[in-house]
């Protein structure tokens, strides 16, 4: 097992390198880089895309005020060439793309992610600042999804075909069909003072007076704020995981070893949790990295925006809009690294659940 883990750890290096290569190449062809963003802000458009449409009036005014000048950047007409060159040096675009990429790889190998272009803070500090919000959402969503879905899926498998199974399946299908962002909006309208009740807060993870509260009051305040975001994020993961658990247990219940165990006089509970549970849970454990990573990163972008939560999802979204490349590449690197490490952890959980699994023999 040690050699298998070592090989998986070594595979992380080319995988992360591939992620950086693909995204670095893509950014070379995407219009509206950080320099164009800065120029748009200077000229009062406040939007990098303003330089691509209807900007002739601003460009003419700039030429009259600052003189003429040619530039490869849209929206730079009329600005002194020296100013453009200074911007290129500040953002590191005065070097060839290959040199910039190699410097970035060397820095990332030492976990030096640089500094944000527009926030005057290191990417590491920025990620650490936003991490607690995303951890809160991802941890509680995944925990609640598993605590509800696994027992419900087992019950549905045991009572397959009953009215309970039919009604819960209908509810699960409806829940799966509802987008998390739409459910979040409904929760806000109904429970956060939109049109009906004002039970939960509209935004944020804590109250303004959070620091002055007692320990118990802090826990209640935190739970009060996180209830709606977690409920909105849990709905899709809850539906998928319940059906996955049910189908996994159904598949195991029909196997010969279960029939043999029952024939030997073992009780239904002993058969279910002593024999079926271990085998059926393998596929549930295999799906854990996908559920956790999806909730932790992808699923939290829209929810964080709707509930005004300052987490990693919102950070990555805003960095993409601003073309803040150090933040984009730094978060991609960290997200990729965490995802790969969680996959290795999933394999270790396989072995803990069923020691008969030997990944080294399977690879051989």
Summed up, what is this model?
The protein has helices at about 1-30, 35-40, 55-65, 80-90, 95-110, 125-160, 165-175, 180-190, 215-255, 255-265, 270-285, 290-300, 300-305, 310-320, 325-355, 360-364.
Any overview of this molecule?
By secondary structure, the chain is mainly α. It has two domains: 77 residues, no CATH class; 204 residues, MetI-like (MetI-like fold). 73% of the residues lie in helices and 0% in strands. The longest helix is centred in the middle third of the chain and has 39 residues. It is a multi-pass membrane protein. This is Microcin C transport system permease protein.
Strand content: under 5%
Structural class: mainly alpha
Which fold name is given in CATH as the topology of the largest domain? MetI-like fold
- How many structurally independent domains? 2
- Roughly how many Å apart are the termini? 12 Å
User: Class of the largest domain, according to the CATH hierarchy?
Assistant: Mainly Alpha
Q: How do the helices and strands follow one another from N- to C-terminus?
A: HHHHHHHHHHHHHHHH
Secondary structure tally: strands: 0
- Major beta sheet, specifics? none
Helicity range: over 70%
> What's the architecture of the largest domain, going by CATH?
Orthogonal Bundle
What do the pLDDT scores average to? 78
Low-confidence stretches: 46-70
Query: Which outline best applies?
Result: globular
- Please give the radius of gyration in angstroms: 26 Å
- Specify the number of helices: 16
């Amino acid at each position: 097992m040690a050699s298998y883990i070592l090989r998986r750890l070594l595979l992380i290096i080319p995988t992360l390198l591939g992620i950086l290569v693909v995204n670095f190449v893509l950014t070379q062809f995407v219009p509206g880089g950080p320099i164009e963003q800065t120029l748009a802000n200077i000229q009062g458009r406040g939007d990098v895309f303003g330089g691509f449409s209807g900007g002739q009036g601003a460009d003419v005014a700039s030429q009259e005020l600052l003189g003429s000048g040619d530039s490869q950047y849209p929206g730079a007409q009329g600005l002194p060439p020296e100013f453009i060159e200074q911007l290129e040096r500040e953002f590191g675009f005065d070097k060839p793309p290959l040199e910039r990429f190699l410097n970035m790889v060397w820095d990332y190998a030492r976990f030096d992610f640089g500094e944000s272009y527009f926030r005057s803070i290191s990417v590491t500090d920025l990620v650490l600042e936003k991490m607690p919000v995303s951890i809160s959402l991802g941890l509680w969503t995944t925990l609640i999804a598993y605590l509800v879905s696994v027992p419900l899926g087992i019950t549905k498998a045991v009572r397959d075909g009953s009215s309970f199974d039919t009604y819960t399946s209908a509810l699960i299908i409806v829940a799966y069909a509802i987008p998390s962002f739409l459910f979040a909006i409904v929760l806000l309208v109904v429970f956060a003072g939109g049109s009906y009740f004002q039970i939960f807060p509209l935004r944020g993870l804590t109250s303004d007076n959070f620091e002055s509260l007692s320990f118990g009051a802090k826990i209640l305040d935190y739970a009060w704020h996180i209830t709606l975001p977690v409920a909105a994020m849990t709905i899709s993961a809850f539906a998928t995981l319940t059906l996955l658990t049910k189908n996994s247990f159904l598949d195991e219940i029909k196997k010969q070893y279960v029939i043999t165990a029952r024939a030997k006089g073992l009780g239904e509970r002993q058969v279910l949790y002593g024999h079926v549970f271990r085998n059926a849970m393998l596929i549930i454990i295999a799906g854990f990295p996908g559920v956790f990573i999806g909730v932790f990163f992808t699923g939290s972008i829209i929810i964080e925006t709707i509930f005004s939560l300052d987490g990693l999802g919102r950070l990555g979204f805003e960095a993409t809009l601003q073309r803040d490349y150090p933040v984009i590449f730094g978060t991609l690197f960290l997200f990729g690294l965490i995802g790969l490490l969680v996959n290795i952890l999933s394999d270790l959980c396989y072995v803990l659940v069923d020691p008969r699994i030997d990944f080294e023999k399977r690879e051989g």
